[in-house]
What does this fold into?
Amino acid sequence: MMVASGTTVVGRLAPSPTGALHLGNARTFLLAWLQVRSRSGTLLLRIEDIDGPRIKSGAIEQTVDDLRWLGLDWDGEVVVQSERLARYRAAADRLLADGRVYACVCTRSEIEEAASAPHEAALDGPVYPGTCRGRFADAEAARSATGREPALRFRVDVDAVPFEDGFAGAQAGRIAGDFVVHKRDGGPAYQLAVVVDDAAQGVTEVLRADDLLPSTPRQLLLYRALELPPPRFVHVPLVVGPDGRRLAKRHGDTSLRWFRQQGVSAERVLGHVAALCGLVPPGTACRPHDLLADYRLERLPRGPMLGSEHGLLPG
It folds into this structure.
């Protein structure tokens, strides 16, 4: 589906069905919804289900049901990434033809051993030391020489891609090491898939948690290489547990499904995450539309937001 953006704000909700939605997800999706609906824009729903083994059975249906339960609506049909694999392959082939990517047969353990500074971590592991740059003429040559199926890795020839974030402000955009855009199993990496989809759907603004700030320079490089217009990025503080780490199972069950099973209403859950954002007083029960009139992105706290079941459960 292609959406003509024009002057209309086009945003998206993009859950990954690797498990049940939790309070942190609800907070981010509420803000993404408010960012678009407060400006009478178009909001899309895309299910990002290309992370193979991590995708949970039934999670797509549960995710859609949870969003509807919260009162978050969207425009048009739901887009599912696993049904768009040919688009990602075509983009990877274009990058290959343009010399922007190369075949790489390195395993993660080999990268860790070969990295000149193994203590220096990139977004998803140690910085790639460039072992396969210029090593093979093409993917077939890599297969013949090693007996391995190669990934496609993007050539990074800059140290940084500066950009202005809609909430976090000016970013240096440091980027370290070549990164994978198409995996050895034949599927697209997240960085490529999200760029291809956001461009194809005419997305003009992406609001997401700031743990994805390091992804943005990589994505901007891909937008340039594919000659696609990038959206405006808005990164909001992460929802964390009492230990300051990203909200997860180690902090107890904060899934929407669990709250629903305990009889907690959607209005109370929405009010709770809206209070985390400084949009309503604690203890408020509300629906998404109740927040539109007074919504201002600048009201959000600048630091991480503490999320828990406190104040939602009886007793």
User: Anything to note?
Assistant: Residues 23-37 form the longest helix (15 residues). The two ends are 48 Å apart (CA to CA).
